[in-house]
Amino acid sequence: MRKKWMLGIVLGILIIILVYTVFSMIDFYNDPINTDIGSTDSARKLPIPALLVPSNSDANSSDYYLNVQEGTTNFFNDKSTPTLGYNGSYLGPVLKVARGQEVRMHVTNELQEDTSIHWHGLEVEGTKDGGPHQVISAGATWDPVFTINQPASTLWFHPHVIGSTATQVYYGLAGLIIVEDENSMSLNLPDEYGVNDMPLIIQDRSFSQDGSFVYVDNMMDGATGDYILVNGAITPYLEVNQTKMRFRIVNGANARNFDLRLSDYDEFTQIASDGGLLEKPIVSDSLFISPGERVEIIIDFSKYDEGEKIKLMSDNELVMTFHVGEKTVDDTVIPEVLSVIERLDEDQATNVKTIDLDGMGHMVTLNGRTFDMDRIDDNVTLGDIEIWEITTFRSMMMGSEGHPFHIHGTQFQVLDRNGFEPFENEKGWKDTIFVRSGETVRIIVRFKYKGLFMYHCHILEHEEAGMMGQLEVE
Ligand SMILES: [Cu+2]
Prior knowledge:
The chain is mainly beta and about 475 residues long.
């Protein structure tokens, strides 16, 4: 009896290995192009997304228009790629808003399919969140109105519609939100958009011979690509003066983590995490960022000479290159105190919940089950503080490297990682936290807005496969 049981397990494992190998080979033969776009050095200038201009000039209340549209983009000189974008062919403009401002969005879906637009990291009521419950049908317009009421931060927006979030993001739907507040504007940080304050939306994509995207939702662990794109250009370059430059970095990849560093392991300074400025700057020589997460860093180029080329790498892969130019006047500073963060008190938590993230590829579960739109997984009382214990299963054979866990409509704080203090740069506001295989991360969160909200893994293929739940705050 015991032998049969063992034989069953061994056979099971062999079948899994076989399936895995077959799917890996399918990927291999799907052979993306290896167009030589030049040397390992950057080829194209970094595109800087435009600021979205409101249709009225009232500082307290503004109307913003976004069109979700199809287009083509030239990632390579001689090939055009069918893509999606907001008000353009790929990615979208930057929505720059101030705390206290009323925002009246008008989002028109010009696609032939449903979409939605989720404001990732924004603290708003469930009906304004842009999750799967706020579908914008083909041809329709969605007009949510909300008031910005959270600290200065770098947030972003992207589709969140059941069944096509991953592909719509992959084809180009994503954009940045910059929130400013009195504190951020008083600090004299680099904050001139497009001059010394730059967005870097980092993604990876694969292409076929004709230039079109290859979206391979493979059996490995989500859709990854062979090329790294920043703001929609393959490993671009940016000309910088010998000054301090602030970069608002978004991991906009579907599934891939980036381990960022400068070519010579030179130091830079992290000033913000997902939900806003850290309490104090952190000097570092590397930075891990998982899908959905944002960081703000400052690189001081004044230590370099004119003509130097500094590379931003992810492990040993080129992300982009900085071409150092002349010395110019720089009156920006990195203050020792960036913000004051109110600590959520463990003693005030009314509930402790466990979120168990398990599996990889298409076989993923959250608390042992997959997403059901008709099921509310958690009920929360408005204003309550809860502790969520997020665990991931450590697989013996093959498993996910980990899961970037995201909660909609709120920002949280990390209490501990495997019982130890969280990393220094995880001590600020977060809305997405990477939980490595076998880890337990405890977070504390206050639910300040009513409505239905999603929580899920931000590997978009895991989310689509059902690693998502919904909570109702009332
Ligand atoms: Cu996941």
